[in-house]
Prior knowledge:
Elements: E1 2-10, E2 20-21, E3 28-29, H1 41-50, H2 54-61, H3 78-90, E4 94-101, H4 108-146
Antiparallel strand pairs: 1-4, 2-3
Amino acid sequence: MRLYKMQITNYPAEAFGKPYKDPESGETFSDFDPSWKPVGWKEWVDEVAELGYVWARRCREEGYPFFWPSEKRTYQTKQAAESKAWAVRRWGGQAIVLEAEVGEFVEVETAKRNRQQAKDLEKAEKLRAKAQMLKQEAEELERSAKQPDWDF
Length: 152
């Protein structure tokens, strides 16, 4: 199963407010300008509101605040994620679509048990490797103890 996400990679410079300098670090920052609206936003919201979309009607009632699509959502189709990326590009930003291959779904308890087993096996392997190293050191010490210590 594949899942998709949209990630915004760049915003238009005009979407940001006046830069300010952090007094402690000296770094310059800029936040989004809450009053900024891309050209054509109001008209587009009006069109979409007339089609019956509740979010657009609400946006119109609230004075047309602009917002970027959320990057938090996960989509089952590439087309759904692409539509969000298209919206970002329409308003001057840049976005990419990410794809994840998801394996089978298992019950939470089974997944937890599988992770614990994998962790235990890894720990056992590390302990075996350490035991092997200690065994080799012990054998070297035994050999060196059996050899005469004659200096000529």
